[in-house]
Amino acid sequence: MNQSDTNIAEQLAEVASMLHQQRTGHIPKAVSVVISEDTLVVTLHEALSPAERAVAQTPEGAAQVQQFHRQLFEGSTEEMRKEIRRITGRDVQEASADIETTSGTVVHAFTTGSMVQVFLLAPHIPSEAELDRTAEERFDSEGHNKPPESQK
After folding, report:
1. Do 84 and 110 contact (CB within 8 A), yes or no?
2. Which domains are assigned to the chain?
3. What is residue 119's predicted lDDT score, i.e. its pLDDT?
4. Most CB within 10 Å of its CB: which of 39, 69, 73, 95?
């Protein structure tokens, strides 16, 4: 992403968080925005309230929470479409939303006729090789801290 894409993503994340809070009274823990040529994906992390997480513990409750958030999304899509148009200068052709009730993640996808597949990744846990490589990069052969590259 270039600088203007980053600024656009930040603006869209702020708007998505604000609209979600207005609709639900709950602020997501974080918002991720990915922009490609014709697709915008907004992910609201930990977007469910404590009450919604409790209801979503059963399959029936999870289905109710999913349906509730789909209805919220459908009812507020027009406002988000206007904000996307204002920020990006582009109209939204299609929009959809889904929620992963176990993690509380809500995904909004705005496309121009493309199929969107979204995969939410588990947190990265460094492997032993990565940890060893990091240690090698930080210490010289005698075990002393190496100066940062900019200080050499």
Report:
1. yes
2. 3-122 (3.30.980)
3. 62
4. 69
